[in-house]
Amino acid sequence: MQTRDLDDDDRRIIQALRADGRMPYRDLAAYTGINYSTARRKAIALIESGVIDITTIVNRVATGERVSAAVGVCVNGPLDDILKRLANIDEVLIVTSCAGRFDLFLDIESASDDSMRTLLYDTIRHIPGIVSTETFHYMRLAKVPFSWMLPKGG
């Protein structure tokens, strides 16, 4: 994915759409103080470029239907193949390489404690190059990814 610089108008549009992703373009223009045609053009460009995606997100943990955890992963060898394998597992929601005690950090979700155990022990730990994992079971979610804030421009 190609990166894209965001200007102040883009940031105002993103913040407005975070509050109401179904906001009509006329309301978006009024809310952001940007003229209608510019607001519409910029919002469409943000969507088409993949910078934003207007979607419905269900917090399945809040419904009691899912078990979530973070997993720190230590690896031996090149990361690319391991990253691809982890990214192809449906229950792995976020995969990121990081600095510090772990080489990778995952957010995972499963239907039950039993399926979480299977995911960790039979799937993730058997990927070649994974040396060890440490799991952090989420007891309660107070903030979920769709609430992440857009950093200030600069």
User: What is the global morphology?
Assistant: elongated
The number of distinct structural domains comes to 2
> So how many helices?
5
Mean pLDDT: 87
Major beta sheet, specifics? 4 strands, antiparallel
- Strand arrangement, largest sheet? 2-3-1-4
| Class inferred from helices and paired strands | alpha+beta
The second-level CATH architecture of the largest domain is 2-Layer Sandwich
What's this, in brief?
The chain is an alpha+beta fold and 154 residues long. Helix content is 34%, strand content 19%.
Describe the structure.
It is a single chain. With 154 residues, the protein is of the alpha+beta class. It folds into two domains: 8-48, Orthogonal Bundle (Arc Repressor Mutant, subunit A); 67-137, Alpha-Beta Plaits (2-Layer Sandwich). The chain has five helices and four strands, in the order αααβαββαβ. The model has no long low-confidence stretch (mean pLDDT 87).
Defining traits:
154 residues; alpha+beta; Arc Repressor Mutant, subunit A; Alpha-Beta Plaits; 2 domains; four-stranded antiparallel β-sheet; 5 helices; 19% strand; elongated
Task: Reconstruct the topology from this structure.
Elements: H1 8-19, H2 25-32, H3 36-48, E1 67-75, H4 80-87, E2 92-97, E3 104-110, H5 113-123, E4 130-137
Antiparallel strand pairs: 1-3, 1-4, 2-3
Helix pairs in contact: 1-2, 1-3, 2-3
